[in-house]
Write the structure tokens for this entry.
Amino acid sequence: MVFNSLEYFMFLPIVFVLYWFVFKNNLKSQNIVLLVASYVFYGWWDWRFLSLILLSTIIDYIIGHKIYSNNDKFIKKKWLWVSVLFNVSLLGFFKYFNFFVDSWVDMVSMFGYSIKSTWTLRVILPVGISFYTFQTMSYSFDIYYKKLEPTKDFLLFATFVSFFPQLVAGPIERASNLLSQILNKRSFNYIQSVGGLKLILWGLFKKVAIADALGPIVDDIFTNYSHYPASTLILGIVLFSFQIYGDFSGYSDIAIGTAKLFGIELSSNFKFPYFSRNIAEFWRRWHISLSTWFRYYVYIPLGGSFEGKLKSIRNISIVFLISGLWHGANWTFIFWGGFHALAFIPLFLIGKNRVYKNSIIGEETFLPSLKEVFNVFGVFLIVTFSWIFFRSESIAQAFNYISGIVLDFSFKTYVHPKGYRMIDYYILVILFVLYEYLIRKDELEPFKFKYKIIRFIIYTIAIFGILLFYDSDVDRSFIYFQF
């Protein structure tokens, strides 16, 4: 079940009514409603996936108590490693097995050995497995580091793991934030719910009018890149930058908005990353929940930046490479992660990686300074270039795509694969960027304007944009479902 489907907009009101009107005075019943709804939501893709999320829930529930109940540090660490190895093995089996087998065959062939037959697993990648395994691992980590006590209520813990708004594509919630909210009684808040509906509308606009609208163009250019001039290849990767942002941040907005309808606040996952003034700021604004996860559970345990420059560089590199691998079983993602590490490390070495930690572009004045414009444009170029590797099916294709830009630079007007006017899409993207700049100070208040008439006009435009760019022939699934 996807957020932008008819089934979901029938499913959501039913859950809402049961939650607030039928079981409003019973916290446990409300949590059971959320749990059942989450399993229905997740099982809508394939009921067999439910066994995996249930197994992951049971294992980490038990391990959490084992870690907490033992005073011996060695035993605590042993149980923590059981959690890590179990979840990583689950990911490795379903997501990376074929990748490692194929990589092994390729490596052996480099030494002159030929393996004629290999065995690979033909399994369906469970949707969201990268997200909920990291979420359950965070529970074990937080108990180990004494930041959390394990819950005795298994149903409550299962609700935390499977909470349907953020189950399949985040935000990846730490137990200290989400579990505590599920534990406590919630009351209906009209302002909170209206805020949720606004985020859902804005997320749908980004998904349908931006990501889905640009998708066919990007697919056409990347599929037929060898037949297009450099100008079209540049257009393709620029539009992909906005497609993936609209797709993933749109999902996060809908997830956060949906959670608000049930009285639960999820963590912000995107804070206008394309207005970043260096790569470090970009990674504080892009997929924040994943960056935070790696910081707390990989970077800091490795020593962080407290053991000298060389070890810090090692730790940074490990985090970015693992982050790349987390995104998919392909060398392109590892290369993408390594590229961002190379872009980040120079900032770290000169002490500029935290310079924009508590500020935003154009904070003191409405218009950005020329320096800020230059910096934002430079970061966008770097990030957009890196997306070539992220979007390509292989390293070879990525370099061929780049070669098409560098070696044969020419200009030719691009024609939409369905014959639509391209000028409409250019105007759409420009207006979208300008509007995001207007609301850049609060990512969770996309329609925060003083006058009602202005808000009404923007609501109308957003709804009209969704209806105008909706295309029933476009794949409506979210890009990050494959991760």
